[in-house]
Design a protein that fits this description.
167 residues; mainly alpha; 6 helices; 0% strand
C-alpha cells in the first residue's frame, strides 16, 4: 500500500489527462461534429442526406465515444475510491460518482434506446417518445460535460494547493 502512495502523483496526472481527453472528445462530438453532420445538406448543396441518415452517422460517432466514456468511468471509480481513502475529501468523489452515473446513463441507457429506434427505420424516430428520450440524452450529455469539467478543476486545484502547502 505504501508503494501506491508513492505513485499517487502519477495517477493524478493520468487521471487529469484522461478527463481532459474525454472533455475534448465530448466537445468534438457534441459541439463540433453534430452541427456539421445535421446540417450536411446545407453545407454541401448537392448532398442528398436525410435527417435520419445524419442521425445514423452521429450515432456511429457516439458509439465510438461510448467506449472511451466507459473506460474513463471505470478509471474514475478506481481513482476516486483510492483518493477517498487517502485524502478523505468529499466533493471530488461525489462529482466522480455523478460522472459515473451520467456516463453509464448515456452509454448503457440512452444510446441503446436510440440504436434500437434507428433499427426500426425512420418510423422508429418519428414519435414523441423518441424525441423525449433524445432530448433527455442531450441534457445528460451536457450535464456530463459540466460535471467532468468541475471534477477536472477541483482535482487540478487541489493538486496545485497541495504543492503550495509544502513551500
Amino acid at each position: 500500500m505504501q508503494n501506491l502512495f508513492k505513485l499517487q502523483p502519477y495517477f493524478l496526472v493520468l487521471y487529469l489527462l484522461l478527463i481532459g481527453i474525454t472533455l475534448g472528445a465530448i466537445i468534438a462530438c457534441g459541439a463540433l461534429s453534430a452541427p456539421s453532420i445535421f446540417r450536411a445538406s446545407a453545407i454541401v448543396p448537392d448532398l442528398q442526406i436525410t435527417l435520419f441518415q445524419s442521425g445514423i452517422l452521429m450515432t456511429s460517432i457516439f458509439t465510438k465515444l461510448n467506449i472511451i466514456l466507459n473506460l474513463v468511468a471505470v478509471f474514475i471509480l478506481f481513482y476516486e475510491i483510492l483518493a477517498l481513502r487517502v485524502s478523505r475529501a468529499r466533493i471530488a468523489p461525489l462529482l466522480g460518482l455523478i460522472n459515473i452515473i451520467l456516463i453509464f446513463l448515456f452509454t448503457l441507457y440512452y444510446t441503446p434506446y436510440i440504436l434500437q429506434a434507428q433499427s426500426l427505420g425512420e418510423e422508429g424516430i418519428a414519435n414523441v417518445a423518441f424525441d423525449s428520450l433524445h432530448t433527455q440524452s442531450v441534457y445528460v450529455f451536457k450535464a456530463l460535460m459540466i460535471s467532468l469539467c468541475l471534477l477536472f478543476v477541483i482535482r487540478a486545484l487541489s493538486a496545485i494547493n497541495s504543492g503550495y502547502k509544502g513551500r
